[in-house]
Specification:
Cofactor: [4Fe-4S] cluster; tungstopterin
Structural class: alpha+beta
Number of strands: 18
Shape: globular
Family: Belongs to the AOR/FOR family.
Protein name: Aldehyde:ferredoxin oxidoreductase
InterPro entries: Ald_Fedxn_OxRdtase_dom2, Ald_Fedxn_OxRdtase_dom3, Ald_Fedxn_OxRdtase_N, Ald_Fedxn_OxRdtase_N_sf, OxRdtase_Ald_Fedxn_C, Tungsten_al_ferr_oxy-like_C, W-dependent_AOR
Helix content: 25-40%
Strand content: 15-25%
Keywords: 4Fe-4S, Iron, Iron-sulfur, Metal-binding, Oxidoreductase
CATH class of the domain at 2-233: Alpha Beta
């Protein structure tokens, strides 16, 4: 980026980002230094890409008019801890309104690809149309500036995500990679394709330890474009660590919500996996399609029980002190590590084990691994499988897909592989479409067409207003269990003010664990922007930019045909209250109706104002 001002609020046009538009059909490339129109575009991520998508009327996800936008945030590749994020944006093949119009969405992932992409000198790559042949793209740093080369990907066709990455590593030194799996290649039958991002651990060990940009089917969009992989090749450009950023990084590790994610030996809870320990006392760990039974079955997947049989390693992303995830290995007789199985994060772990009736950690790990290698979003896959299993349990005389049942590991494992290969579109199309096909939609656990994460909707009505995945773009998932908030006033204030701020991390290039409780409108981010870029912004400036970007997300949902009745929790939640979940009832119809009226009373006037400003600017 070219930064020619210290005031990105009043003079955003003096900050220019380097964009390449690539027409995949003709091969034509256009490089431009684009002046920013506002602080959201300066920050980057979906704050920039959504403003581009808002100008595109798109009626079908798979069409020439729908671009795939790859970009980073201002702090991606910086010295700020967690600054590694890459963003992929488009109109989603998976998330759509009942009118059949696709919703704009983005997906974010860590790994080192984002930093390498930024260090090529490119800030944004827009892929137009689609290639006639399978290709991969090489984005490289040169003395003349960033270059993009289109290469034949015939040798990559059909390979898993991991095998694509490891094949490309043999060809390109000093590079990192983003790749789709067989699921993305089978984009017609799989709408939940994910994009795998390479990690230092993966390239060093040769084990499938990649990270994922999973939500909304961006891997399927990449497959539709006939782009199987991206290579970002550039020398590392590490800035000297200033005292200001050093202090920020120390605070990130010790506070900001990250301390509880640290390994147990450091006084933390052992990563995101610790959510089991927090929610199980309330019997709020999702079980058998989000219907906890008030028993101890979820406890079989507690860390303390898993480590009796398997070797565990707490791990962090490159240059990050937040050790939030865990690698699971077979345990040899002498207690040492054997074969690598999978990476355990809370959502994939729950949704591909406990919530589908699998209570063996080794089998759960194999299901996660199969999902990762096929290149699918673990959340959408797990929730759709859970719906299928629930249908079969309720309809033993009309079973689907061989009558697979909760806990049937072998059949579930095969279904995952067959879905990724394009042979099981009933699952690959997601839970909304499958439930519409069966005619029983009440127990399909999605909101607005996007499967919910592994937090009971009974504990989180904030899911309703999230714009790209409930737990990542509306930070209300801990309000009931962790904070004990039940009054409507607190929930209205959280949804319309503080808790939407979490979405700002998908603009600026930072992971949400930087400060998961507050978003990016903090002094820590202010200090990083001043130290690394000499930019003068306030906490209020940042909060306002995040809010405008969030409001634009709601406006774009409205434009794509969403009606008020689609802003709702899965119907089963209110129709069949679960007596086993030991939390106050804040998901009944009366409560949700009151909450909705008050939330929209705040959002609607702002939406009208922002939409008016957009029309005037255009």
């Amino acid at each position: 980026m070219q930064i020619l001002t210290t005031d990105p609020v009043k003079e955003p046009f003096k900050i220019l980002y380097r964009r390449c538009v690539l027409d995949l059909q003709t091969g034509e490339q256009t490089f431009t230094d684009v002046p920013c129109a506002n602080l959201e575009q300066v920050l980057g991520g979906f704050g920039r890409s959504f403003q581009h998508l808002a100008k595109r009327p798109v009626e079908r996800a798979y069409c020439d008019e729908n671009p795939l936008i790859i970009n980073t945030g201002l702090l991606t590749g910086s010295s700020a801890m967690t600054g590694m994020r890459t963003y992929f944006s488009a109109y989603s093949p998976l998330k759509q309104s009942r009118k059949g119009l696709p919703a704009a969405i983005w997906s974010a992932g860590s790994g080192k690809f984002g930093a390498k992409f930024k260090w090529t000198g490119l800030d944004e790559l827009i892929l137009e149309h689609r290639s006639n042949q399978p290709v991969y793209l090489v984005i490289s740093h040169t003395e003349q500036g960033p270059q993009v080369a289109v290469k034949s990907a015939e040798h990559l066709c059909g390979l898993t995500t991991h095998d694509k990455i490891m094949t490309l590593q043999q060809q390109y030194e000093n590079a990192h990679f983003a790749a789709i799996g067989p699921a993305g290649e089978n984009w017609q039958q799989v709408l939940m394709g994910a994009i795998a991002l390479s990690t230092e651990n993966q390239l060093r060990s040769g084990e499938d330890k990649q990270r994922f940009a999973g939500r909304g089917g961006m891997g399927s969009m990449m497959g539709y474009k006939n782009v199987l992989a991206l290579v970002a090749q550039a020398p590392d450009q590490k800035k000297p660590l200033t005292d200001a950023v050093k202090k920020v990084n120390f605070n990130v590790v010790k506070g900001g919500g990250a301390a509880r994610l640290q390994p147990i030996k450091r006084g933390g809870g052992g990563g995101t996996w610790a959510a089991y320990d927090v929610m199980q006392p309330f019997h709020a760990v999702p079980l058998n399609n989000f219907r906890p039974q008030g028993n101890d079955l979820p406890e079989r997947m507690l860390r303390e029980n898993v480590e009796k049989e398997y070797a565990l390693e707490s791990s962090a992303c490159w240059r990050c002190g937040i050790t939030c995830h865990n690698y699971v290995y077979e345990k040899k007789q002498d207690g040492t590590r054997g074969e690598f199985l999978a990476k355990f994060d809370y959502e994939p772990l729950n949704l591909l084990s406990t919530n589908i009736g699998v209570h063996d950690p080794g089998k759960g790990a194999r299901l996660i691994q199969a999902c990762d290698l096929m290149g699918m979003d673990a959340i959408s896959l797990g929730v759709t499988l859970a719906y299928l299993l629930a249908w079969n349990e309720r309809h033993p005389d009309q079973p689907l897909l061989g009558g697979v049942r909760f806990g049937d590991y072998e059949k579930i494992h095969e279904l995952i592989l067959e879905t990724g290969r394009g042979n099981c579109p009933d699952i690959g199309m997601g839970s909304m479409r499958l439930s519409q096909q069966t005619g029983e939609t009440d127990y399909a656990y999605h909101v607005k067409g996007l499967e919910i994460a592994a937090y009971q909707p009974e504990t989180n009505p904030g899911y309703i207003w999230a714009i790209a995945g409930g737990h990542m773009t509306m930070g209300t998932y801990g309000m009931l269990i962790r904070e004990g908030k039940t009054d409507v006033d607190s929930w209205v204030d959280a949804i319309t003010r503080d808790k939407l701020q979490i979405v700002g991390f998908d603009m600026i290039g930072l992971c949400k664990f930087f400060d998961i409780t507050k978003g990016i409108g903090t002094q820590m981010v202010v200090d990083c922007l001043h130290s690394d870029f000499n930019l003068e912004v306030t906490q209020e400036d940042l909060k306002a930019a995040v809010r405008r970007a969030f409001i634009l997300g709601l406006i774009m949902e409205k434009r794509q045909g969403y009606t008020m009745d689609e802003y709702a929790l899965p119907a089963e939640v209110a129709k069949k209250p679960n007596p086993h979940i030991k939390v106050p009832d804040i998901s009944n119809l009366e409560y949700i109706e009151q909450l909705s009226q008050r939330v929209w009373a705040v959002f609607k006037p702002e939406m009208e104002q922002v939409e008016k400003e957009l029309l005037e600017r255009d």
